[in-house]
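pasting for ref
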Amino acid sequence: MNNFVFQNPTKLIFGKGTIARLAREIPGDKTVMVTYGGGSVKKNGIYDQVTAALKNHRYIEFWGIEPNPSVETLRQAVALGKEHHVDYLLAVGGGSVLDGTKLISVAIPYSGDAWELVLNAELLGDALPVASVMTMPATGSEMNAGAVISNKTTQEKFAFNYKHPQFAILDPETTYSIPAFHIACGLADTFVHVMEQYMTTPDQSWLTDRWAEGILLNVVEIAPKIAENKHDYHLMSEYMLSATLALNGLISMGVTQDWVTHMIGHELTAIHGITHGQSLAIVLPATMTVLQAQKRGKILQYGERVWGITTGTPTERVLAAIDCTEQFFRSLNLATHLNEVQIGEETIAEVERRFNERKVALGEACNVNGAIARAILEACL
């Protein structure tokens, strides 16, 4: 096990009726900006719960943070926040709303352009406190310091890391109105978050391996049941907490990580606007296929412990584990090949060019460059 430092300061508030706790969790002397997405919270009652809880607070609202939040939209929120001297931020929505709000939190005190903060971590300075009411389980952003921001003008999408939210409210009842496709993408995102931290090499940490496998098994078990009844409180509780634990730092303690699938998936989203979880469902099986030699030991362990694959030659078991992974995504009614989403050679060449231009060396072995990214995308065709 590698050396590590773990600290997660986010307070997790979980369960029915917990949105009302905003009234006492946010200090009464703050000027709050509440950030939202496209307006679904007004249809499902979440907005009414939030405004009722904040009735004695000073607050303004900013609407319109889109999936894969764009810096173009966030600049508008930053200007509004500066105008009203906002000193506290509350994100109400999914991971994209929270990711965008994290950038707003550091851009309001900053004198330059928000995109500069995404590109250069050395510029990150003061940040306003952030909290969240999560309505879409997927990203784990509610309990980590990361965010992913898009730039529509340059067709780029980058991650940055800075500070954790102060608290996160997770009420599983807020998930009941999520469309089936977005639930599927959220389950895929949760699954792949775990795999990025787990699918490297064996025997680094027996304990975190078991934690990771437990989350994977949980997602696989609940996915078909959620498809049958997404209003089951127990199932949606399991889904919501799985998404949080998949990326709150717990399963990455002392182990190497990968993130190749995410970095390639980000490019597909930046260029084509593909939903994030959908992009991951396409890329992960191909990543495992192309890198199966270096991941062989972990794929065999994964195949046995998650999918019960115990017979056949090692090569047959590796291929069976990869196939089970792809079939899981297919069971969610997600595409697993680029041709299903009308992506071909032109995009593959562009991703290869971007990786080469940035001189990336990704993955647990730091060996994934533009050429290997091309091989992975070609395996997705």
